[in-house]
Design goal:
By secondary structure, the chain is mainly alpha-helical. The chain folds into eight domains: 3-52; 70-155, Phosphorylase Kinase, domain 1 (2-Layer Sandwich), CATH 3.30.200.20; 159-224 and 239-355, Orthogonal Bundle (Transferase(Phosphotransferase), domain 1), CATH 1.10.510; 367-413; 417-487; 507-606, Alpha Horseshoe (Serine Threonine Protein Phosphatase 5, Tetratricopeptide repeat); 691-812, Tetratricopeptide repeat domain (Serine Threonine Protein Phosphatase 5, Tetratricopeptide repeat, Alpha Horseshoe), CATH 1.25.40; 833-915, no CATH class.
């Protein structure tokens, strides 16, 4: 065989190697898409034909069922979940330290015996080993079996290809672009680690049930530092033709530009429903995404037109730049592409459109309509004289007429829901509002100002009822009407304000800030009292966002702005009360609880006889009292709120749900759990009746009820309550919201109290997997500490001090605050309790902890936990009498039979401890070196 023939067969062998990775029914299309030299293609086809014969010596093995149950390293193989010509993938499981983990194990098959198979597999191991990113399915483990077969373990991603995930949920353009930002981040990280993917396509980007993106399959990836020396023909041809860059068909050296093209192709698919082309490049320009949408036969004509309009302009330009035939014309990096997508999401100029003056001016006007409009109006007022006065009078008459029309429409809307009209079926408020929004869209297309005001009103009510998705839809529609028809700035500003409040309610603080800043720009400079009042609220909510993001100085500055505006307006008790509440929240978040108390007390003292409008102030005061451990005062404030509202509202009013919830928690904080539970049940029934069973607003009350059931020893009922609370929180807020994580941590405690050790471990694993994914979100560190503390208690309830200590050790250092950090004292108590359960005595630490007892309220969990820890430490030190005295003290504040179940559980564990005295402060086992 000549040297030329040998080279040809080697090239054919490498292509054949990659074809074996594909399912048999896809190999022909992949081979045709490669557009190979005819002679080379003939050699490849001969290899494929030989492989397809049933009697070949190296036929791929069968399903390998005998591997199920086999140990590979620390993993036990379970069922097969995937297979190609070169490798087979199994679901696998390992149990370490009482924790079960699952993974996907990838092993070579007999097909890997062809040239390059083992080397490529090892290259994939090397690539995955250097990539540790939350959006990349990286390497968990790797090794070689006893028979020399290489294997690697990766996270098992239970998800769907990104295009299917988006299509099944009918996601809008903005949500799809938001997912692409995560993909861009993962690819950019790979590039920073000198790794190119080269096969970005929907099936290699999975989205799990929680909406979390994972980039897969670096099997044909390459390392930039070795691309010149180690590049093979197989690796240059082993990609998916519909998503591959044009230069990949020319066997060009690998570059980051190939992945930028792949990202653009993936974005094209998400926006249009199809890839940018069906095969190799044919020299024709890529179709504009906005035009490609019009060819989608699966959507109705109105939907196609709406989708096309959303893509026209900026997104068209972004996609075409990413898909430029010449790599030099593409974005320089995935980060650059992500920046333009982010700019599009925020209505800012995108680099793909260039820097034309007209375009940038148009973007400026979109963001700063208020200032420009205000300038025009000012010029008209100064130059128009009498005409301006007449115009203002006409505008006032028009606004009065519109207000009457709004009132008439809403009255008619609820009258049309009369039971007699509905044949005996009484629709709930949310249904009535939804119907009303539909009528506005159908019947008021020719009256944009009236339609916008009605949609704003409906959206605002839906927001307060917890129907966040519907509220967003109506408020965005109102905003779009105002923008398109250049409606008056005050109306547009109020809608922007409500969109900001919606962002806060759903935990989307960056979105909230964007909307509120637009509201500020729109309302700034307006002199009418209503607009000035709205502007004060804008600054209040900007302060709330800053508080949530941990920006305490910014929060106080925004609230000072609100205070300055408030001082120029007619006195308004409701607005003033809201301002004081926001100020108190900011001070509490900054660890200045006593100042928050003073702010609220001063506001309440100025009110001769607090009425309905002042109840939010009393509620905030009760919350701060609870923060300071003054539970008796908290109960007094909450009881006053409930009594006032019962007198003012009809029986069964949903407005009573939150006050009753607060009152029940204050009663329980004083150790009277049996009295508190029916109060909380009433709150839960009212909330459920008003918002339904799947609203995020139901989650806090359900979670509180689960906690109450735990205190009463009804652990199985508590688990069910937390399951329902978790479903409501995740549906309305998402799985990474702090409310969802908190509910999940309480569910772990309930499972532990019920003795469900395996379920507790699985619940803990689920929560710990979510915490790193929330790390960049506001308040993440504090929320993580709270969740770790609750998980540690669950382990203690199971009698597992080692894992409990490990969880407590992951908490961040304690901050300095002016109020006793009761949560930190509780964590320290649990640490000492865990050491006692291990037989370790710490008399000095116990003495330091005992000094904090006087500051804690009688009957509080913090007080009970400190006494438990002190009793346990006394017992392992050999002082049984002191231990029993501590346990008697623990019971004294509680009413007969009302010692919380989890406290009773730990009392039993303490009494089972064996005395283990410490001499001279040194554990005797440490003297001998024994544990």
């Amino acid at each position: 065989m000549s040297t030329g023939d040998l080279s040809l067969w080697r090239a054919a062998d490498e292509i054949f190697d990659r074809l074996l990775d594909l399912p048999a029914d896809e190999r022909e299309a992949a081979l045709a898409a490669m557009a190979l030299d005819p002679v080379l293609e003939a050699h490849v086809r001969r290899l494929v034909a030989a492989h397809d014969r049933a009697d070949g010596p190296l036929d791929p093995a069968g399903p390998d069922a005998e591997l199920e149950g086999r140990c590979i390293g620390r993993w036990v193989l379970e069922d097969e979940i995937g297979r190609g010509g070169m490798s087979v993938v199994y679901r696998a499981r390992t149990d370490e330290g009482g924790e079960t983990r699952v993974a996907a194990i990838k092993l070579l098959t007999l097909g890997a015996l062809v040239a390059g198979g083992v080397q490529r597999f090892k290259r994939e191991q090397a690539i995955l080993a250097r990539l540790q990113h939350p959006h990349i399915a990286g390497l968990l483990d790797c090794g070689v079996t006893e028979d020399g077969t290489p294997w690697l373990a990766m996270p098992l991603v239970d998800g769907q290809p990104i295009d299917q995930w988006c299509d099944e949920r009918n996601l809008g353009v903005g949500a799809r672009v938001q997912l692409m930002l995560d993909v861009c981040d993962a690819v950019a990280y790979a590039h920073r680690n000198l790794v190119i993917h080269r096969d970005i396509k929907p099936s290699n980007v999975l989205v799990d049930r929680e909406g979390y993106v994972r980039l897969l399959d670096f099997g044909i990836g390459g390392m930039l530092e070795s691309r010149q020396a180690g590049m093979t023909l197989t690796r240059m041809l082993a990609w998916t033709p519909q998503y591959a860059a044009p230069e990949q068909f020319k066997l060009a050296p690998a570059s980051t530009a190939m992945d930028v093209y792949g990202l653009g192709a993936l974005l094209f698919r998400l926006l249009t429903g199809r890839p940018p082309r069906e095969g190799p490049p044919d020299g024709q320009p890529v179709t504009l995404p906005s035009r490609a949408c019009l060819d989608d036969d699966t959507a109705t004509a109105p939907l196609r037109r709406a989708a096309s309009k959303a893509l026209r302009g900026d997104l068209d330009a972004i996609v075409l730049k990413a898909l430029a035939p010449d790599p030099e014309d593409r974005y320089r990096s995935p980060d650059a592409l992500a920046r333009d997508l982010g700019n599009w999401l925020r209505d800012r100029p995108v680099r793909a459109r260039g820097s034309g003056t007209f375009y940038r001016l148009r973007c400026f006007l979109r963001r700063h309509r208020a200032g420009v409009a205000g300038g025009i109006v000012l010029a008209l007022v100064l130059g128009g004289g009498l005409a301006a006065t007449l115009w203002q009078a006409e505008r006032a008459r028009a606004e009065a007429a519109r207000a009457t029309a709004v009132k008439d429409f809403l009255v008619e809307l609820f009258e049309s829901a009369d039971p007699e009209v509905e044949a005996g079926r009484v629709p709930d408020t949310l249904t009535v509002l939804s119907r009303g929004a539909g009528r506005v869209h159908r019947e008021l297309a020719g009256e944009p100002a009236l339609a916008a005001e009605l949609l704003h009103t409906i959206g605002r009510v839906q927001l307060h009822l917890g129907d966040y998705a519907a509220s967003r839809e109506q408020l965005l529609a109102a905003y779009e009407l105002g923008r398109r028809h250049k409606l008056p700035a005050p109306a547009r500003g109020r809608t922007l304000l409500q969109l900001g409040v919606l962002g806060i309610e759903t935990g989307r603080y960056d979105d909230a800030r964007d909307w509120l800043l637009r509201a500020r720009d729109t309302l700034a400079g307006l002199k009418d009292a209503e607009s000035r009042s709205a502007l004060a609220y804008v600054h209040m909510y900007l302060g709330s966002v800053a508080t949530s993001l941990g920006e305490h100085e910014t929060a106080l500055a925004e609230l000072a702005q609100a205070e300055a505006i408030e001082s120029t307006l007619e006195p308004d008790g409701r607005r003033r009360g809201h301002l004081r509440i926001h100020q108190a929240q900011s001070l509490r978040a900054a660890g200045r609880a006593r100042e928050a108390w003073d702010v609220l007390r001063e506001a309440v003292d100025r009110i001769p006889e607090p009425g309905i409008a002042d109840l939010p102030l009393l509620t905030a005061l009760g919350s701060v009292a609870g923060d300071l451990g003054r539970h008796e005062e908290a109960e007094r404030y909450f009881r006053r709120v409930v009594e006032t509202m019962r007198a003012a509202y009809p029986p069964g009013s949903p407005a009573l749900a939150t006050p009753l919830n607060n009152l029940s928690l204050a009663i329980s904080a004083r150790g009277r759990h049996r009295e508190a539970e029916p109060v909380l049940r009433e709150a839960l029934a009212l909330r459920r009746a008003s918002v339904g069973s799947d609203s995020a607003r139901l989650a806090p009350v359900l979670s509180n009820h689960g906690t109450m059931l735990m205190r009463l020893g009804r652990a199985d009922e508590a688990v069910a309550a937390f399951d329902e609370a978790l479903a409501a929180a995740e549906a309305g807020l998402g799985p990474l919201h702090e409310r969802s994580l908190m509910v999940l941590s309480f569910k772990c405690q309930a499972q532990a109290l019920a003795g469900r050790a395996d379920e507790t471990a699985a619940c803990e694993s689920q929560l710990l997997a979510r915490l790193p994914r929330r790390a960049a979100m506001p308040g993440a560190r504090q929320a993580a500490d709270d969740n770790l503390r609750r998980l540690a208690l669950a382990r203690l309830l199971l009698g597992q001090p080692g894992p409990a200590l490990a969880l407590l050790g992951r908490m961040s250092p304690a901050p300095e605050t002016d109020a006793p950090d009761r949560a930190r004292l509780q964590a320290e108590a649990w640490r000492l309790l865990a050491h006692a359960l291990q037989g370790l005595s710490e008399p000095a630490a116990a003495a330091a902890l005992a000094a904090h007892l006087p500051a804690l309220a009688d009957g509080s969990f913090e007080q009970a936990d400190l006494r438990l820890a002190l009793a346990a430490q006394a017992r392992v030190s050999g002082d049984v009498a002191t231990s029993e005295a501590r346990l008697r003290e623990l019971r004294t504040p509680f009413l007969e039979g009302e010692v919380p179940a989890r406290v009773e559980s730990m009392v039993a564990r303490v009494r089972n401890l064996a005395p283990h005295p410490v001499k001279d402060g040194i554990d005797p086992r440490q003297r001998t070196g024994k544990r």
